[in-house]
Automatic annotation (TrEMBL):
It comes from the Bacteria. Keywords: Membrane, Transmembrane, Transmembrane helix. The chain crosses the membrane at residues 23-40, 47-67, 73-96. This is Uncharacterized protein.
Length: 107
């Protein structure tokens, strides 16, 4: 799944629930949305293209967060894509195991 898809979905979850649902729960849902999306059959883009587009999307989301004066938009977007970043950086072995388990595998 593209990083952009994860970022947009996570941000949409925060945006839709803002003011109705407590922020920590929305951020948890934003994070968990990554695994829900990755469990759906999908195609992967090239690593470079995926990270370039994701980086640009996060940059735009940072500007949006500044303009709206609400950095939880950016937090949700980052949480939505962080399992993919961990896949490359290998910061959390546990997160990597969960991510690999939940990720769609071609039959």
């Amino acid at each position: 799944m593209s990083g952009l898809t994860h970022i947009v979905t996570a941000t949409a979850i925060y945006s839709a629930g803002k003011g109705k649902i407590k922020t920590p729960f929305l951020l948890l849902l934003a994070f968990l949305s990554h695994f829900a999306l990755d469990s759906v059959p999908h195609y992967e883009f090239s690593l470079f293209l995926n990270y370039a587009v994701s980086g640009f999307a996060l940059f735009l989301l940072a500007i949006w967060s500044i303009v709206r004066q609400d950095f939880f938009y950016l937090a949700a977007g980052v949480l939505g894509v962080i399992p993919d970043a961990n896949w490359i950086l290998g910061i959390s072995p546990l997160l990597m195991k969960i991510h690999s388990f939940m990720h769609f595998h071609k039959l």
